[in-house]
Design brief:
Blueprint lengths: L1 H23 L5 H29 E4 L3 E7 L2 E6 L2 E4 L4 E7 L3 E5 L11 E4 L5 E4 L1 E7 L4 H8 L6 H22 L13 H16 L3 E7 L3 E3 L1 H43 L2 H14 L21
Helix pairs in contact: 1-2, 4-5
Pfam family, one: Band_7
Protein name: Band 7 domain-containing protein
Organism: Mycobacterium branderi
């Protein structure tokens, strides 16, 4: 609250001027005495208002999960924890958040990519990657970060977030995906493994003062040519699986027919029973299913 201190200085200067006028005025005459007393009274009132403004200038408050950086003429000279913070009137407190920061770079599609991060893939195509990032400032690192990234009238925390964390997150993501070719991966992208590598590279890039808690990659949107090649590949894979299943089905049917043929050799009545079932299903007379010379014994229900 340096503005209050400047205001207090102005009031004190005015108080000195009024006091000087009151001292200079001669004391003879009732009007001169009254004017002298009035000037001194105004000077005293201005002095009190200046003192009150100075007290206000010394008061500040640091929000929960924030750390207050005390600066003096632009240089960090101390810190204050959350709560009421008193400081010299010519000093200033700037806050940096030590809370966990949850960031989501998300979108709906390749064309409607929103805040997703664009990367270049190994097959020279492009994609947009959604990323969830959790990070925070390490305890005790705020003063050094403020000194490294602070400046006159600068939102230091946003500078750290945008110019350090966000930018390095994009670099780490681009580095990992630069070696990934989606058209050659039979099982698709291993997103958890890639996210773990991005987290490691990002932590190395931002240094010890910032802690990268978690990185997740929920989805990827490829450009149209790449997506079409992936869809064609997936269709061929599915056709191959269907063909393999057809082969297995044919083998199982052949095995079943072999079993039936073998059972017929041992018991011809199996064929007769199958013939009767088929004839009844078709609504035909099953009498022709019996071998020549055989006598069928049928138990027909009474009408």
């Amino acid at each position: 609250m340096q503005g209050w201190f400047i205001f207090a200085i102005v009031l004190w200067v005015a108080a000195l001027l009024c006091a000087g006028v009151g001292v200079v005025l001669p004391a003879q005459g009732s009007q001169r005495i009254s004017a002298r007393r009035g000037a001194l009274s105004v000077a005293f009132a201005l002095f009190l208002f200046g003192a009150l403004s100075t007290v206000i200038a010394c008061y500040d408050r640091v929000d929960t999960r924030n750390v207050g950086i005390v600066t003096q003429f632009g240089r960090p000279v101390g810190t204050r924890s959350a709560g009421i913070a008193w400081h010299a009137p010519w000093q200033k407190i700037s806050e940096l958040s030590e809370a966990i920061q949850l960031q989501a770079f998300d979108g709906n599609s390749y064309s409607d990519h929103g805040s997703m991060i664009q990367v270049r893939l190994a097959n020279n195509s492009s994609a947009y990657v959604a990323e969830n990032l959790n990070w925070r400032l390490r305890e005790g690192a705020a003063p050094q970060l403020f000194q490294d990234y602070g400046g006159s009238n600068t939102d230091v925390f946003n500078v750290i977030k945008e110019n350090l964390v966000d930018r390095q997150a994009q670099v780490a993501l681009s580095k990992v995906f630069a070696t990934f070719d989606p058209t050659l991966q039979a099982q698709g992208a291993d997103l958890p493994k890639m996210a773990a590598q991005v987290k490691k590279d990002l932590q190395d890039a931002v240094g010890h003062d910032i802690e990268i808690l978690d990185v997740r990659i929920p989805r990827i949107f490829y450009d149209d040519p790449t997506q079409q090649r992936i869809d064609a590949h997936n269709q061929k894979v599915q056709e191959t699986k269907n063909a393999e299943q057809d082969v297995k089905t044919a083998q199982q049917r052949k095995a079943a027919n072999d079993i039936i043929a073998q059972s017929v050799n041992n018991d011809p009545l199996v064929v007769v029973a199958q013939c009767i079932n088929e004839q009844i299903t078709r609504g035909k007379d099953p009498a022709g299913c019996w071998p020549i010379g055989g006598t069928p014994l049928l138990n027909l229900p009474k009408p």
